[in-house]
User: What shape does this take?
Amino acid sequence: MTSRLPIESLQSSLTYCFVNVGLLEEALTHTSYVNEVKKSESSHNERLEFLGDAVLSLVISEYLAVRLPHCSEGMLSKFKARLVSESSLAHAARRLNLGAYLKLGKGEDRSNGREKDSLLADALEAVLAAAHLDGGFQAGRMVTLRVFADQLHSITDQNAGQPGADDSKTRLQEWCQKRLDVLPVYALIRETGPDHSKWFEVTVSVNGEIIGAGAGRSKKEAEQAAAREGLQRTSDLA
Assistant: This one.
């Protein structure tokens, strides 16, 4: 049987450290392992997979609706369907090398289970649910956006030139100057990940009050995300 990689390295790739590591272990445990190891107290990941499907759907829907305000409901639905498809999930799971962390039964392992799209997709959904249960919605949201960053940016970058897809930082700055005669202030809260794959978390404040938070692969991207969230709250600032 193939030996598993230590889950500490998976947490590093996710840029999230679990308080309850048992949730992550459960997310990585396939039914074949539980059925085969009769004396094991492990739980398989189907329960978490069920919840992870909902977490993924909500986070992706929110991201697309905010980032692509010019798109019709039909377009957003197509983008979402592409992102939450089995092939998309399996692609993201392979970038994390998720198969190397799975607990599989001997038969499933011998039949190349660590490379099966369906198994990888289910396990990734379970991991997203584990993060949600461990740290709340914001933790699940952060991990989801981190895992799907490449696919999300591919879609939004292709549609960035459409009418209405303007610069959130510029829009927020213009609003603040016009209504409050101040400038928004951005602060780097956290920087995680290896040098080749950094992840930045940023907040934006107006008159000392934090009105938005965002994350991304660069500070600029994180600031844009924070500005987008801030724009949704500007009606409460005047």
In short: DSSP finds twelve helices and three strands in the chain. The longest strand covers residues 185-192.
